[in-house]
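Render this sequence as a predicted structure.
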Amino acid sequence: MIRIRFLGTAAARPTVRRNVAGIAVQREGESFLWDCGEGTQRQMMRYGTGFSFNHIFITHAHADHILGLPGLLRTMGLQGREENMTVYGPAGTEGRLREAVRLGARRSPFPVEVRGLESGARVEFEGWAVHAYRADHGVPALGYALVEEVRLGRFDPEAARRLGVPEGPLFGKLHRGEAVVVDGREVAPADVVGPPRRGRKVVYSGDTRPTPDTVEIARGAELLIHEATFGADEVARARETRHSTSAEAALVALRAGVQELVLTHISARYAENPTRLEAGGRKVFPACRVARDGLEIEIGYRDG
């Protein structure tokens, strides 16, 4: 299961009900953060995400996306953390990220590495990766995609038994794509294993204008998390500040063919009542909603 927990959904500054940017992501027991606005560690306590993660991916070095780093790292240090931590961000912003890290980790008992990423970089994990891609925000900025590897096809044990394959190690070999010999006959993987199955994909745009890069990397994704700082009637303001409207984000989702669109980075003018913002997105892409702090989304496999 992939679980997405929204820790902060406000743009630029917190409001009474919305903290600034932060998203906790958990996949099959492994966890990381997308962005770390001020107060993120408090939101993690509030929503029970825990602190057992080793990677933080920063979309860009604006204050509302990085000011939570000192407090979070300091809190982890006071809790006795010893494991390494890596903070990633756009290439060229390493100095600012290291400054934020130093404030929180100067006396911490665990090492923190800062790594700059270029568009197209991948941070590899077992069976999946986080892909960085170029965002359009007027400063060095990235979006990120959690992309799983293609999975093995379904193994049909009944078909294997009918072909005389005994249960045990030979089942595993066939499922891994290796032919086996039973009573002098070769049994091929295609005889008992279905076609490969696609992995899941979750994309987070960070702060950005709508871009072809987002459309391309989000193609077929289970979930697109796209900023929507402004309403559909504020296109000029969105262009000026290198942000997106809800309708523009919805058009990205439509072109990419995603399953669901969730809007975040909500301007204070919509923070208490995002109905109009959400309606602007739904006119273009019906499977659209506005995130709230604490919202949790679970993403299973499409094929069960």
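Summary. The longest helix spans residues 94-105. The CA atoms of residues 5 and 296 lie 4 Å apart.
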